[in-house]
Design brief:
The complex is a heterodimer of chains A (about 400) and B (about 475).
Chain A: H1 4-28, E1 33-36, E2 41-44, H2 46-65, H3 73-81, H4 83-109, H5 111-127, H6 138-165, H7 171-220, H8 227-279, H9 286-325, H10 335-350, E3 356-357, E4 361-362, H11 365-385
Antiparallel strand pairs in A: 1-2, 3-4
Chain B: H1 13-16, H2 63-71, E1 79-82, E2 85-87, H3 91-116, H4 129-155, H5 157-178, H6 187-210, H7 217-259, H8 263-270, H9 297-349, H10 356-395, H11 402-414, H12 432-461
Antiparallel strand pairs in B: 1-2
Classes of the chains: A mainly alpha (about 400), B mainly alpha (about 475).
């Protein structure tokens, strides 16, 4: 009610975040499409792909040649004390590099499919959902802004972490750190494309739910509702689910890799922290109090966010079925309408809005909880393995 | 944002929740609000004019536990508007709850302060370092859980009242339609309250006896408040279980109603009790006045479907209110059970230095937490099973004519793969299996802890290898 002034700001913030993500991706060469505003379509551009490939190669080369971080005294101390940490760290480095390369290459490889999906989403937006008021979907705005904030904060925290760990600044270090952080930003933006697409799908499903609810209300008040409206909604729902399946098929490997690298980073961070504070008996300086914890907290936030988005969409999909149950107790339901609703209900119960990566796991809170528990167990095992050194 | 929310964020709920005048139902009851998904439905429908004055208080079954929670500021001290409606608390009462919560937070800050300073050091007297750390963490977790409980309760005041109103409204409809009074004896809640109080007192007495030297006032405050926090958190869990039990009774009632129409029951009535398989349908309130005839079925089924929707909504509402509290309580409980099992193990395996004090302390904690966990998971499991049973029972309804078949199919098609669950913030479902899961997790962590202990011991025994 007292939203107008606030909502304007929120909308602007959302628009700014989306634009920022778009331009950032263009600059970093991970969004190889150009937008044709006349036909409202995205087109794949070979030049942008080439630009992205060159840019990434340059960045990797820069990181490789200016790699100064392994010589930081703190790391050396930890590794000297604890050789296991060094081995695990090596694995994580290789995994991260592989992730970066894989995300970019798969993005280019599948760019045709991605183009089609984005075009279909644009088409849906323009042809069907343009007429619905969109500004009431608070969760959409919230998640878009969260994602933008999390990418920005992650970037800053990486810079702080890298600069904070090395005591002596040099030009070489700055170049290395900048290119490393840019590379990381590219990966994060690439992952956020999936995230944003999921949020958009969520919003469309939310709109369908709202419309169904409105139909139920109208029926309850004794009004006539034509079955075409339900059929129309079912058609939209069907298309959305199709898009969703294709989208998660394209992004599954990338998301699994990104999640794995987040989890490893968190476990490693806590492990380093324990070694540094407990077994090396260091004093509590700004390193311990601020730099390492902030990186871990932000990492966890980002991880939670990527799960929360999928969970939100999944929940909204479940709500559709629950809303359809409201049609149960309407007495004189038109035969045709009844059939449409039954069809919708059957469709919902057999095809759900779910995110399954590589056929390995569904992404929702349950899985997130299990992942958190498992990483805690791994942390315990790491500590046990290396108990003698503590 | 809670994960299981049913609420679809409707645009400008105030205008949208009642876009149309309420339908006048052609049959006996006035229609319910159908806006089961809008965020704040009006506090209670003004339909159903209860002309009688308040001759009996609402929620009499659980009034003891409610009064404890009201006194501690966890529940709003609501006003009873009529027999089937409660209103928001008066200003004075609201201020009282607010004040109590403020005192609680002040005490919490004081306790955290004394935990982090050496004031409370005398309470951690154990032989080994790890035990002290464990107890310290346990205290901190307890404080965290209780603070969270208070915060969540304060935030959910309105939705709690809404849930209560919905339950009452539902009761009213049931009474109008079937003349049944759905009250039951909730003796278990009182028993649990007494048990919790006794257990906490016993634990505190044990603790005071175990500390050597004079106990300083801050330590007394810490201990007393610790006991109160534990007790109130446990009380809240009992309250949640009682609420679930209330929902269970309602679900059970409609299931019984439906059961009266099932094939087996029909046969039995025809044959004069020949079947004897299902006795549930012949409970105290007989479902239909004229048992052998299906003629009431269409009407009743509509009522039942609506009741079912409403009950599911209440069930979800309770879940949303208790989500965070349940997660933190389960975490705290898990930690306490694990550490106490570990302590017991250490006490039993240690040679010659078994302290009866610690043994009793561990047993008291284990009893308290295990019984609470059992109560919670049992109530959740019962309610969930009953909620899911409706479609099973409906599928057995003897539907001779095509018309009935349609009515039944309408419900069944919408219930395919739609199992409801009581979840802890979406992390895991709480039902009877939770108890099993928790105990398997406790075993795993116990083994890890014991391994750590052995490593520690071997490290002390052996001379350190060449270390810098």
């Amino acid at each position: 009610m007292f939203r107008p002034s606030g909502s304007g700001f929120r909308q602007k913030l959302v628009g700014f975040t989306l634009k920022g993500a778009l331009y950032g991706s263009w600059i970093l060469g991970i969004f190889p499409f150009t937008y044709d505003s006349w036909t409202r379509k995205l087109h794949r551009s070979k030049w942008l792909i080439a630009y992205g490939l060159v840019l990434t190669t340059v960045l990797v080369a820069l990181v490789w040649t200016n790699d100064t971080e392994t010589e930081t005294p703190m790391r050396m101390e930890v590794f000297h004390r604890n050789p296991l940490a060094e081995q695990v760290n090596g694995i994580h480095d290789i995994q991260s590099l592989f992730t970066v390369a894989f995300i970019l290459l798969r993005g280019y490889w599948k760019s045709g499919d991605i183009e089609r999906i984005f075009n279909e989403l644009l088409d849906l937006q323009h042809r069907h959902f343009r007429h619905y008021p969109l500004e009431d979907c608070c969760s959409f705005d919230r998640f878009v802004v969260y994602k933008g904030v999390s990418v920005a904060v992650e970037f800053i925290s990486m810079v702080i972490l890298e600069l904070g760990m090395s005591p002596n600044f040099s030009q070489q270090l700055l170049v290395g750190v900048t290119s490393l952080c840019l590379m990381l930003l590219g990966v994060l933006l690439g992952a956020s494309h999936f995230h944003l697409a999921v949020v958009f799908i969520y919003r469309y499903v939310w709109i369908i739910n709202r419309d169904l609810l409105r139909l139920a209300n109208e029926l309850a008040d004794g009004k006539e509702v034509s079955s075409d409206r339900v059929d129309y909604l079912l058609g939209l729902y069907h298309r959305l689910l199709n898009i969703n399946t294709r989208l998660s098929d394209i992004y599954d490997y990338q998301m699994v890799l990104v999640m794995a690298s987040f989890l490893i980073a968190n476990v490693m961070g806590i492990y380093f922290f324990i070694i540094y504070t407990i077994s090396l008996h260091k004093d509590w300086d700004y390193m311990i109090l601020f730099v390492i914890p902030q990186a871990m907290i932000i990492n966890m936030f980002d991880f939670c966010l990527s799960i929360a988005v999928c969970d939100l969409a999944e929940r909204t999909g479940r709500q559709t079925s629950t809303i359809l149950k409201l049609f149960n107790d309407i007495e004189k339901l038109d035969k045709k309408l009844d059939r449409s609703i039954t069809e919708f209900a059957l469709f919902c119960s057999h095809r759900r809005l779910k995110f399954r990566h590589c056929g390995l796991f569904y992404v929702n809170y349950e899985m997130g909880f299990r992942m958190a528990i498992t990483s805690f167990l791994y942390l315990l095992f790491l500590i046990q393995f290396d108990f003698w050194n503590l | 944002m809670s994960p299981n929310t049913w609420v679809i964020e409707m645009p400008s709920q105030k205008s949208c929740s009642h876009p149309y005048p309420r339908r006048i139902s052609p049959y006996r009851t006035p229609s319910l609000n159908r806006d089961a998904f809008t965020r704040d439905s009006p506090a209670a429908a003004t339909s159903g004019p209860s002309t009688r004055s308040h001759n009996h208080p609402v929620f009499e079954d659980i009034r003891t536990i409610l009064s404890v929670l009201k006194a501690s500021g966890l529940m709003p001290i609501y006003e009873q508007v009529s027999n089937y409606e409660v209103g928001p608390p008066t200003k004075t009462n609201e201020f009282y709850s607010f004040f109590v919560r403020g005192v609680v937070h002040a005490l919490t800050i004081f306790n955290v302060y004394s935990l982090f300073t050496p004031i409370s050091a005398q309470l951690f007297y154990s032989y080994r370092e790890t035990d002290n750390v464990n107890q310290w963490i346990e205290l901190l977790l307890c404080i965290l859980t209780y603070t969270l409980t208070v915060f969540v309760c304060a935030r959910n005041t309105k939705s709690m009242l809404r849930i209560m109103n919905e339950i009452l409204q539902l009761d009213e409809e049931v009474r109008k339609q079937f003349g049944a009074n759905l009250n039951q004896n909730f003796g278990f809640s009182v028993k649990f309250l007494v048990g919790i109080a006794a257990c906490q007192t016993y634990i505190i007495v044990l603790k005071i006896y175990a500390v050597d030297g004079v106990i300083t006032p801050p330590s007394y405050i810490l201990l007393a408040f610790y006991a109160v926090q534990n007790g109130l958190t446990a009380t809240y869990i009992v309250f949640a279980s009682a609420l679930l039990r209330i929902v269970y009774i309602r679900f059970h009632f409609i299931n019984q109603l439906l059961n009266g129409y099932t094939y087996g029951q029909q046969q039995k009535r025809k044959g004069g009790g020949g079947g004897g398989r299902r006795h549930r349908g012949n409970g105290q309130h007989h479902p239909t006045p004229n048992p052998a005839i299906m003629e009431h079925f269409p009407e009743d089924s509509l009522f039942i479907y609506r009741m079912h929707n409403k009950l599911l909504r209440i069930y979800k509402g309770i879940n949303d209110c208790c989500n965070l509290i349940l997660v933190s309580f389960l975490g705290y409980s898990f930690y306490t059970v694990t550490t106490n099992c570990y302590n017991l193990f250490v006490q039993i395996t240690a040679k010659g230095m078994v302290s009866p004090n610690i043994l009793q302390w561990c047993f008291a904690w284990l009893c308290l937490h295990v019984s609470l966990l059992a109560l919670l998971s049992r109530s959740c499991g019962l309610t969930t099973r009953e909620a899911n049973a409706t479609s099973q029972i409906l599928s057995r309804v003897y539907a001779s004519s095509r018309e009935y078949q349609n009515i039944i199919d309408k419900f069944l098609t919408k219930s395919i793969k739609q199992e409801v669950q009581f979840t802890a913030y979406g992390f895991f479902a709480i039902d009877n299996s939770t108890l099993f899961k928790i105990f398997s997790a406790v075993t795993t962590y116990l083994v890890i802890l014991i391994q750590f202990k052995q490593l520690e011991d071997s490290k002390v025994e052996d001379p350190e290898p060449d270390q810098t």
